[in-house]
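Two proteins, back to back. First:
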Amino acid sequence: MNVTVKELLDAGLHIGHQLKRFNPKSRKYVYDNHSGISIIDLGKTHTLLSDAVKFIEDLIVAGKNILFVGTKKQAQEFIREAAISCNSPYCASRWLGGTLTNFATIKKSIEKYKRYLSMEEDGSLEKLPNKEESSIRREMNRMNRNFEGIVNLTQLPAALFIVDINHQAIAVAEANRLGIPIVALVDTNSNPDLVDYPIPGNDDSTKSLELIINVIMEAVQSGQERKEEEKSSLSSLKPLINESINEGQLPVTTSSYDEDSGVPEHFSSDND
C-alpha cells in the first residue's frame, strides 16, 4: 500500500461527525474533539487500512471475490468505476433486501433479467406486441436498478467492501448473519464492531471516499496480478518437473520367467 498518513490527512479522513451524532463504540479511533467535531486518529486509520488491503489481496489470490457496496449519492460513481476497473461485482444504485440471505431467489430473478437482455439484443423483444414489449421494458428498467453490477454474480461473495455501514445497515446485517467478512469505511457515528476490517474515516467527503475506494480497488488489482504471476510460475514449472521425472526413471525391460523356478531366465546363480 502506497498511501501515507499525510495523504489521508489531505483527503480529510480525520474529520468525523459532530459530537451529538457520536457513537461511543468508535471512541477507540478518536484522537480528540475540536469545536464539537470528532477528530479521527489517522495513525490507527493507516494501520487498519493496511490490514484491510492485505486481507483483500490474499482473498483475491485465493481465487475469491469481493462485492463493492456504496449506494449513497457521494459514493455511487466511485464504487461503480472502481468495481468495473477491477472486474468485481458491485451495488451502487440500490441494495436489494435478500441479496445475500435470499441469494437463490435473487439468482432466478437475475436469470430472468438475462433472458430479457438476450431478447433485446437479438431483436426478438421488438417483435412482441407493443403492450407486452412496454411491460417487459419497464420491468427491465427496474431490474437494471436492482441488479446492476451483480448480473454475473453466480455465488455468494467471499467478502464485502462497504462505504457507510449506517446507510448500508441491511447489507451489514445480511453479511453478519451469513458470516461473510466485511471491510468498511467507518465514521464516528457508526459502530465499528459490526465489521471485521473497519477503516476509521470520513465517509461523507468525496475526497476521502475517492481515496479509500481507489486503495481498495488497487488491492484487488494487486491480488489479481499476484494470482496471475503464481499461475505463470506453476505453468513454467510443470515442464521442468515432468522432464526431471523422465530423466530419473530407470529403463523398464520385460523378462521371461521360468515357470518352475519363478526366477527370470537371464538371472544366473553362483552355484551353476
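And the second protein:
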Amino acid sequence: MAKGDHLYVSRGTYFHHGIDCGDGTVIHYREGESITRSAEAFFALGERISVKPYTDSDSPEVVVERAASRLGERDYHIVFNNCEHFAAWCKTGKHRSQQVENVAAATAIGGALLGGIFVAPAIAAAGIYGASKYLEQAKSTDDPVLIRSSLESAMAQLAESRQEEAAAVEQIQQEMESWVKTAKEAINRDREDLARAALERKYPLTKQLEQRQQQLAEITNLESQIRSQLALSEG
C-alpha cells in the first residue's frame, strides 16, 4: 500500500472504500456519517486491506489533496454518494461506483437498492450528482483555473451520463414497440388474453422510460447552467 492508493475492505455484504494518506491513516466515508481520517486499523476493522488497481489515475498528491478537501462532508447516499464514489473521484475525478453499477445490472432494472423502476437510472443519477459537485466547486472559488477545470470535468461527466441514458431510452422504446407489435398480432389471432399480457409487459417499460427522460431533462438543465458558467469564466 502507498500514498494515494484506493483501499477497500470487506464489510460482509459489501466493500468499504477509502484513500491511503501514506502515513498510516485513511480518508474514507464512514457509512451513513461523514468523510473522516482514521487509522488503518479502524478502517480495516480486522479485515484484510486490498488495493484497487487503476490503469489511469491522477498523482498520489492530487488524490490525497482531493480526499482532504472533502473532510467533514456529511452527504452520504448509498446510490449517489457512497464510499466508493468518493474514493474513485479522488483517484480519477470521476464520480462512479462499481458496486452500484453491478447491482443495477444484475437486477435488470429491479429493486435491490431503491426499489422498483428507480434503480435503473441510479447510475446516471450518480453521474448527475458528481457533475453537481463539480458545479458547486466552481462556484465556491475565485481561482479561474480551478473554475474552468471543475466546469469542464462536470461537462465530461454529464456527456458520459447522457450517452448512457440515450442508449437506455432507445433500448426501452424498442422493447415497448416489440410488446405493442406482439399485442396486435395476438388480437389478429383472437387471443385477447395474450394481447393483455403483452400490454401488461409494456406498462412498466412506460414508467422506466419516463424516469429515463426525466434524467435526460436534468442533464440538459445542468449542461445549460455549466455552459453559462463557462461563458462567464471566459468573459
